[in-house]
From TrEMBL:
Protein name, UniProt field: LysE family translocator
Transmembrane segments: 41-66, 131-158, 164-183, 190-210
GO CC aspect terms: plasma membrane
A Pfam family this chain is assigned to: LysE
Organism of this sequence: Spiribacter aquaticus
Length: 211
């Protein structure tokens, strides 16, 4: 994988992690109600769950390429179409409304030990099938014939580190910086920027495959 391709992958992973969603809400909740340590554990375990999906997806695509390059081209085009749809939807994102300035959601769990926080983060990631679909579409744009273990490890490792690192930053700085409120106020622009990057990647990849 070239440096420019990896930077594109990194940018999409970062923008995807920045987008507010249920995973962010979980990290906020565990940080506020169980403490910074629990928030950090939640962040790391969620990143590991994301890494499981990322690794499985990269390995599967590599196996497809090794035996069916035509099928890989079809998957790549289908993935580009899905990313194009995701990007267009994100660029049409509306204003978040009254929730923009809201504080963290009320707790619905009692403060617990680190094991409970780890379970929460891992379960949130593993029970979200959208993560698997997203990585299938995304990685199909980067896994190429001849991709070996280093490339696969780089793909999965980038997704894991970005996800865990971002939520760890949220957990570490939440109480002092009000990072969650900042994200909610800028949710529309984050989604639109993410959408623009996804649309560009989808169109450029489709042009390469069809060209």
């Amino acid at each position: 994988m070239t440096v420019s391709a990896w930077l594109s992958l990194l940018a999409i992973c970062v923008l995807g992690a920045l987008s507010p969603g249920p995973s962010l809400a979980l990290v906020i909740r565990n940080t506020v109600n169980r403490g910074r340590g629990a928030g950090l554990i939640t962040a790391v375990s969620h990143g590991l769950g994301v890494g499981v999906y990322a690794l499985a997806t990269a390995l599967g695509l590599a196996a497809v390429i090794a035996t069916h390059e035509t099928l890989h081209s079809a998957i790549t085009l289908a993935g580009a179409g899905y990313l194009l749809w995701l990007g267009a939807s994100a660029m049409r994102a509306g204003h978040p409304g009254a929730e923009a300035g809201a504080g963290p959601a009320p707790a619905d769990v009692m403060p617990g030990r680190g094991a409970a926080a780890a379970r929460d983060g891992l379960t949130m990631a593993l029970l979200n099938p959208k993560i698997a679909v997203f990585f299938l579409a995304l990685f199909s744009q980067f896994v190429t014939p001849g991709a070996g273990a280093p490339t696969i490890a780089l793909l999965a490792g980038t997704a894991t580190v970005v996800d865990a690192g971002w939520y760890a930053l949220v957990a570490a700085g939440l109480s002092a910086s009000g990072g969650a409120a900042w994200l909610r106020r800028r949710q529309v622009w984050i989604e639109r920027l993410t959408g623009a990057v996804l649309v560009f990647l989808a169109l450029s990849t489709a042009a390469t495959v069809l060209g």
